[in-house]
Amino acid sequence: MLVYPQIDPVAIALGPLKIHWYGLMYLVGIGGAWWLASRRLARFDAAWTRDTLSDLIFWAACGVILGGRFGYVVFYNFEQFLRDPLWLLRVWEGGMSFHGGFLGVMLAMWWFGKRHGKSLFELLDFIAPMVPIGLGAGRIGNFINAELWGKPSDVPWAMVFPAWSDPAQLARHPSQLYQAALEGVALFAILWLYSRKPRPTMAVSGLFATCYGLFRFIVEFVRVPDAQLGYLAFGWLTMGQLLSLPMILGGLGLMAYAYRRQAHAA
């Protein structure tokens, strides 16, 4: 069993002002995405400036935050919203959904593309390889916050999380680190290498959706579901898995369509 590192979730405290590591992870994700996107900007569109790229990243970040919050409320805790509608705005109390953020980014990219003469999937293919930076950083933030941990386990790397987080004090799968490794490191490597060569439009987006969906579906087997939802069916199906299934099927469909369309155009 590994010892959980006691890391203060508050990175910087200046009087009443507190900056949490989880919030800093968002900055890492956004900054890292901008830096890597700037390296591929000329290949994407030589006419685009750094200012245009900054606008793109800004609106993508808005899609992540607004969509992530809205998605969590709708998918994971809608009853709480019905009891207290203003809870939707209290983002500091926690509660973000990747799948909601994913839909938020799609909407933001559709809107941004309309303004700059780009299709939705042109933009999604461009930014998809950068997204795992934010995903990996976010999971590290979850780990520091000692939240979203896994099921009890006797594997050698199981951890006992702080009592304020897990009153049962059981050795558990550090599922946040599993997700950081898969959704962050592995997904980044796959997409970055795949997108180094020209691919048909929609293929990179399809690969992102497929791989993320698969990784999330797998890790959910060892992650404790949200307490207010529990398992949805069969004693094992979680909301995260249910929301990931359309991503897997849709991603595979996008890749098949992209290559079929390319073959017909040849």
UniProtKB/TrEMBL annotation:
GO terms for molecular function: transferase activity. The keyword Transmembrane helix applies. Keywords: Cell membrane, Membrane, Transferase, Transmembrane, Transmembrane helix. It is a multi-pass membrane protein. InterPro entries: Lgt (IPR001640). It is found in: Cell membrane. Signal peptide: none annotated. Its main location: membrane. A 1,2-diacyl-sn-glycero-3-phospho-(1'-sn-glycerol) binds at R139. The keyword Protease does not apply. Catalyzes the transfer of the diacylglyceryl group from phosphatidylglycerol to the sulfhydryl group of the N-terminal cysteine of a prolipoprotein, the first step in the formation of mature lipoproteins. Belongs to the Lgt family. This is Phosphatidylglycerol--prolipoprotein diacylglyceryl transferase.
